[in-house]
DNA sequence: CAGCAGATTGACT
DNA sequence: GTCAATCTGCTGC
């Protein structure tokens, strides 16, 4: 299995659901504020742009916030939810197609002390879409960041997630999206298999 | 331009 | 179990 930074071609594939599934077990690395933190991606959700009611880009809508989703694959889309939480997405597919993968949970690998300091909590939790970004130091200011640069990258470190360990299910927190909320676009696995 | 609801989290009744 | 925190963007006056 090839290792190192994922190439642009990984993100540019037309099947955003496949990209979401393949991101499981990959390592999200940030080099922000002079500190390096790394964590294994354990949960993702696919958002199908214009045809997905749960997506910010549903109906081909463009706003200052989501315009980066229409850009080149392999860039970060970070946005603020409820005015407080930074959610990290990866832009996929072709330029002009607003598909993206939301990273909902990670498993810490490196920089545990830095994550604890950033979160200012005794116990480190990265099990939610808003908490993992705080632990890794990702802010809305990083939206549009190229994942093939140095600040934020996703690498393959040879971690293999058995197909049978991958759990597929409906996305969370998007009940308002009607039938689209039932689509099996959520993928995750139990990080305990990494030990 | 005021009001509201949302890919959420953590602290408190 | 309930609720506040607080930003973006849509709707309606």
Task: Describe the structure in your own words.
The protein is of the alpha+beta class. The chain has one domain: Roll (3-methyladenine DNA Glycosylase, Chain A). Helix content is 14%, strand content 30%. It has helices at 8-11, 16-22, 112-119, 129-136; strands spanning 4-5, 27-32, 35-48, 76-81, 85-92, 99-110, 152-156, 167-169, 186-188. Strands 1, 2, 3, 4, 5, 6, 7, 8 and 9 form a nine-stranded antiparallel beta sheet that branches. It starts with a strand and ends in a 7-residue tail after the last strand. The structure holds a DNA duplex (13 and 13 nucleotides).
Quick structural gist:
Helices cover 14% and strands 30% of the residues.
Please tag this protein with its features.
195 residues; alpha+beta; 3-methyladenine DNA Glycosylase, Chain A; nine-stranded antiparallel beta sheet; 4 helices; 14% helix; globular; DNA-binding
Any idea of the CATH class?
Alpha Beta
Order of helices and strands: EHHEEEEEHHEEE
User: What integer is the average pLDDT?
Assistant: 92
How far is the N terminus from the C terminus? 19 Å
What is the total tally of β strands? 9
How many helices? The count is 4
CATH architecture: Roll
How much of the sequence is in beta strands?
25-35%
Unreliable stretches (pLDDT < 50, length at least 5) are none
Q: Give the tally of structural domains.
A: 1
Fill in the CATH topology.
3-methyladenine DNA Glycosylase, Chain A
**What class, by secondary structure content?**
alpha+beta
């Amino acid at each position: 299995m090839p290792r190192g930074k994922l190439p642009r071609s990984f993100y540019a594939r037309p099947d955003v659901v496949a990209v979401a599934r393949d991101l499981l077990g990959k390592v999200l690395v940030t080099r922000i504020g002079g500190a390096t933190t790394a964590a294994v991606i354990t949960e993702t959700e696919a958002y199908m742009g214009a045809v997905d009611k749960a997506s910010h880009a549903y109906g081909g809508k463009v706003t200052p916030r989501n315009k980066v989703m229409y850009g080149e694959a392999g860039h970060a889309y970070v946005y603020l939810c409820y005015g407080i939480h930074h959610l990290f997405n990866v832009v996929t597919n072709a330029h002009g197609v607003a598909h993206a993968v939301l990273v909902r949970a990670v498993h810490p690998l490196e920089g545990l002390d830095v994550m604890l300091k950033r979160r200012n909590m005794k116990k480190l939790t990265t099990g939610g879409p808003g908490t993992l970004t705080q632990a890794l130091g990702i802010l809305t200011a990083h939206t549009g960041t190229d994942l093939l640069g140095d600040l934020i990258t996703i690498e393959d470190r040879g971690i293999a997630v058995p197909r049978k360990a991958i759990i597929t299910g409906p996305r969370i927190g998007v009940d308002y999206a009607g039938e689209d909320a039932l689509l099996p676009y959520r993928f995750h696995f139990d990080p305990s298999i990494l030990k």
